[in-house]
TrEMBL record:
Composition skew (Acidic residues), residue ranges: 21-44
PANTHER family: VASOHIBIN, VASOHIBIN-1-LIKE ISOFORM X2
Residue positions of the active site: C156, H191, S208
Extent of Polar residues compositional bias: 334-355
Region of interest: Disordered: 1-44, 325-355
Species of origin: Ridgeia piscesae (Tubeworm)
Protein name: Vasohibin
Composition-biased stretches (Basic and acidic residues): 1-12
Gene Ontology annotations for the cellular component aspect, listed alphabetically: cytoplasm
Source domain of life: Eukaryota
Amino acid sequence: MDDLETKPEGNKTDNANGDVNPDEDDDDDDDDDKAEEENNEDDGILFYVNKDGLPMKHDTWQRMWSHAAKLYPDAAKTINTIRNTAPEGEVPVAPPPSFSQHTSLPEKLELIQKYISDLQYNHTGTQFFEIRKNRPITGLMDSAKEMIREALPIKCLEAVILATYLTNGMTSLDRFPVSFRTVFGGHEHRHVVLGVHFNGYYGALGMSRRDDLMYKPLTFRSLSDLVLDYVLAYNRYWHDVRKVKIGSKIPHDPHSFVSIEWKQCSLNVMNISRTQLCRDLNRYAREIRSPMAPMKMTEKWPTHLRKGMAYSDAAARAKEDVKLLSKRTRDTSNKLTPTKDQTPDSLKPNSNTPNVDVRSIYVAASAKLKRCRYGG
């Protein structure tokens, strides 16, 4: 999911000419993500994913070397030398970052980025750790622990998961994924970083072949400034940024069963002005900074800017319960206990439960809705 290599001949393109359609609508985001996961496409080229864990199985090991030889035909001799030469001594392992009680949060982010960079970018064409974006956070954190244990080179999507794990517990830090889709030479390329916000400043953590497409220190006063810095970096490499997708705020609970929302806000950069892009990004940034960001974004944001938000059936039922009971509580003259017919079925007390007033039931319903939304 990185940036700057082209797709080899014979792979799929968007049309018969191999060009990207600039008029494509945002509604195809779901299809793009599905195709990306099924085809394991990164940097505009197809790559393999090791789905059998580590150590690798023999077939996966052989396939990795064969694919690397196809990716780098001019380096066949070097690849054979590396493959047939036993390493001398122990291979150095990058130690995970450690913090003292006096380490400031910006300094922690610098140490985390240094650790991610020390793992190095994976150029083999085979992703060592399988990352499924729809997995719950607790499962993705297990993958991050495995990355630390194995200390192998990673790609940008793995770096986002690792950075999320290493910043858990920094509750004053807001974290959200930032994805880019670019076009170069008629081929599409994808990249993702972990955006961060702290004390009024924005930055990012990540992995890339290019230094200016990964880490960004906490120096940007707005989300639009951060994104535009990436856009300018892409332009220096003759890439046209086609779409920018901002995900929702990631909770700090490593045991959460909710999934990361990767594309809460999807903006077609090629079809809107720079002013409109900054306006939409900064509006979304205000929602990210809100303590109740997921609830507000779902209720207030237009459909084309909040892709992928959907509530479970339980959450929908709880929301209806809240609406019904909230309507009844607005009548201050009626403070009677709700009758059996008026009380939502999901909130009816059993025979051993004493009667409670409307306000108590309303508070209970609100708590239920919160648990449904946040997986608590």
